[in-house]
Amino acid sequence: MDAQAFFITARELYARGKQHIPDELVSSKHLIYSSPAALAFNSPGAQGYGVKRAGLAVPGSVMLLVSPGCCGRNTTILGDEGGYGERIFYLEMEETDIVTGRHLAKIPAAVEEICSTLDKKPSVVMICITCVDALLGTDMDRVCRKVEAETGMPARACYMYALTREGIRPPMAAVREAVYSLLEPARKDPRAANLLGFFSPLEEGSELYAMLAKAGLEHIREIGSCKTFEDYKRMSEANFNLVLNQEARFAADDLSKKLAIPYIEITRFYQTDKMANQYRLLGGALGARLDYAAAQKKADDCVADFRARYGELSFSVGESLNADPFELSLALVRYGFKVPEIFGTVTPQEFPYLRQLAELSPETRIYSNLSPTMLCYDGTKSPADVTLGRDAAYYHPSAAGVSWNGERQPYGFKGLVSLFNEISQALAERSAA
Amino acid sequence: MKGLRKYLAPFTPDISGAAAVLYAMGGIIVISDAGGCTGNVCGFDEPRWFSSKSAIFSAGLRDIDAILGRDDKFIDKIKIAAARLDAAFVAVIGTPVPAVIATDYKALCRMTEARIGLPALAVDTTGMALYDEGQEKAYRALFETFATCRGRGIEDFVCILGATPLDLPASDSAAHIKNALERSNGVKAVVCGEEGSLEFIGRAGEAQKNIVVSPSGLRIARELKEKFGTPYETFYPLDEFDARRFREAHGGKRTLIVHQQILAEALRRELENSGGCERISVASWFRMDGELMREGDVRLEEEDDLLRFVEAGSFDTVVGDPLFVRALRGWRGDFAPLPHFAVSGSLHAAEREEDLWHGLCA
């Protein structure tokens, strides 16, 4: 009996090539282990933004979840701790509904009843459906039109289709389309831009805000910063959208077609040279020179100071964090640290990072959080000084742990500085303990 | 409107109930879903998930698997896991997806046994029923598969049914119940579902008796009586000190107790013993066994039923999960918290019985 967690080294994985990723690292090829480290994968509502919470990003919105009871179970916690208790409602399906589809006919009346209990009329009712309706082929656009006709309330569909998680349009991409779909054509303001991709704003002090402002963009809007529905509607005025997360690409495409707002996509990096290069290209696309030199110097100094103070620390890097674990690991290795292990989802898109990791840190072990063999993972065999991500912290509870999955999104040089500040704090706390 | 919930999130579904029974029994438990159901079971309905490991996996179904009914691929995945893990059996738990595509569980089990060589059982849950129904089904599947012992035997143990974390009010309640029953019966008490209990399920026909502490264990207890002649009783042991505190805190009032029926009945008896109570009723959204119900008890169906029943009964006190307060808007009586994991999950869960009784009797 092989009682070890499966891993492959960066060198071996890169040598195999992107066409031959081992089955143990491909979630569709094995059962999925939903350990406490991997809960965010199987239950995105557990932390951060899943479909339900994301669907409520529109200010003043409420949600009606139309599904079997099991799909709404995690909302008990979300509702209570996240302050969403007054905004999420449920229409539970019965077995007969699977055959007759009669639950769909009840939705307009359910919306009517919900609105009658609210003090304030919602801006929109997001109607969330799940795997059952995916299989039944429910036409939710038609259902939403019927709701609008019968209740006078704007309604939009949210698809919590876990069955399509690795499909062309996964649930978290589809929900981004849904939340921007209420925007209507408006006169463009050349001084306005939107940041798309996250449901909460970038962290305060991000150089991106300052650089864009210096380039003449006075109104930088994000859905997470919109306090009212009126604020949200002003996102239609944007001269362009800046996409910070590729899951927002479909939404940006949609806005490009419907509202003629073009978009530019950029990536979150933790390697300062990559950030600088990207800002340079972004400036070129915008026709402005973005001034990032001071922010870059601060970030480089911060890393150098940290390295000088703590030496060659070893990091265990997980994927349950605000970063691409492979890019972040590569950054750490390039800054002179050790990364003995990464817990991540390997896709062909990671191979540019893997190519360099295979060269600079060939023995880095790569695990999949979702592999059933992770039941046998023994963290004592590979101790780490620092863990990044809640998953890595689960495997190494005694290391200095940085969750790095806060709501406000780190980005760019400021993001890197904040990360190292948090690592310093975690190390100090561990020393004091 | 039937099925509409405005104040209370859905309660623990049958899928989680089935998983709770099987959790510690040493099998590979595969939830036949896309991932979300497993995430809910492990992340919200299983308090043991963060302290002890269990081989619970998601089948990781994708739309094409469901459309084409690819059972062979499903079994391939189980086979790969079984080759790497030491498991006593394979259990497949149903969700809405197999309910929609009408999965043939019997065939799935036969194929699994033939290809993997381990006993296989299936629990045909749908995600549309409550946890106690899932527990009932899991008990039945377990005993049908493993209780092969015929007739009475040594009778050196009693079996406790209906004692998962979803049935009981505190994390250590099962241990308290077990200790109390060992003291009172003078033989080993085995919580059906605890680690090591598979052996005793195999010897079910030799049990001195079955003790049912929540309605989810009733159906299997009746079936075991029929099959093996094993007697059963419904009984929830309460510590005398705690029971006295409860009587002192809540005696003499018109009280409604909303919890699983057998625990609620035990608490009702304590209040009756305190004397002077005009009316004490039991209500639950979960299974209410007809034989245990008394006049004035009720099985709640819809969310609004609770407030209607409380107002109609003019109750002074409601004992129940703290989340129920949301569904009692406008009601001005006393509320005594008795957490039920199947309602509020970890939000109001009590780690220790001591904390539970402290809150309940404050």
Q: How does this model look, in words?
A:
The complex is a heterodimer of chains A (433) and B (362). Chain A has three domains: 8-40 and 293-432, 3-Layer(aba) Sandwich (Rossmann fold); 46-165, Nitrogenase molybdenum iron protein domain (Rossmann fold); 192-286, 3-Layer(aba) Sandwich (Rossmann fold). In chain A, helix 4 links the parallel strand 3 (62-67) and strand 4 (88-92). Chain A has helices at residues 10-16, 39-42, 51-55, 75-81, 95-100, 103-117, 131-136, 140-151, 171-180, 207-214, 229-233, 249-259, 272-286, 293-310, 325-334, 351-360, 390-395, 412-432, and strands at 8-9, 32-33, 62-67, 88-92, 125-130, 155-160, 192-196, 219-221, 240-243, 263-265, 314-317, 338-343, 365-367, 386-388, 400-402. Chain A has 433 residues and is of the alpha/beta class. In chain A, strands 1-13-12-11-14-15 form a six-stranded mixed sheet. Chain A has a four-stranded parallel sheet with strand order 4-3-5-6. Chain A has a four-stranded parallel sheet with strand order 8-7-9-10, with helices on both faces. By secondary structure, chain B is of the alpha/beta class. Chain B has three domains: 14-137, Nitrogenase molybdenum iron protein domain (Rossmann fold, 3-Layer(aba) Sandwich); 157-234, Nitrogenase molybdenum iron protein domain (Rossmann fold, 3-Layer(aba) Sandwich); 240-360, Rossmann fold (3-Layer(aba) Sandwich). Chain B is built from 15 helices and 14 strands. Chain B has helices at 14-22, 36-45, 63-68, 71-84, 96-101, 105-116, 131-146, 173-185, 198-202, 218-228, 240-250, 261-274, 304-313, 341-344, 353-360; strands at 4-5, 28-31, 56-58, 90-93, 120-123, 157-161, 188-191, 209-212, 232-234, 255-258, 280-284, 298-299, 317-320, 334-337. In chain B, the strands form three sheets. Chain B has a five-stranded parallel sheet. A four-stranded parallel sheet of chain B has the order 3-2-4-5, with helices on both faces. Chain B has a four-stranded parallel sheet with strand order 7-6-8-9, with helices on both faces. In chain B, helix 1 crosses helix 7, helix 4 (71-84) packs across helix 6 and helix 11 (240-250) packs across helix 12 (261-274). Chain B starts with a strand and ends with a helix. The relative contact order of chain B is 0.13. The mean pLDDT of chain B is 94. Classes of the chains: A alpha/beta (433), B alpha/beta (362). At the A-B interface, strand 2, helix 2, helix 4, strand 4 and helix 6 of A face strand 1, helix 1, helix 2, strand 3 and helix 3 of B. Strand 2 of chain A pairs antiparallel with strand 3 of chain B.
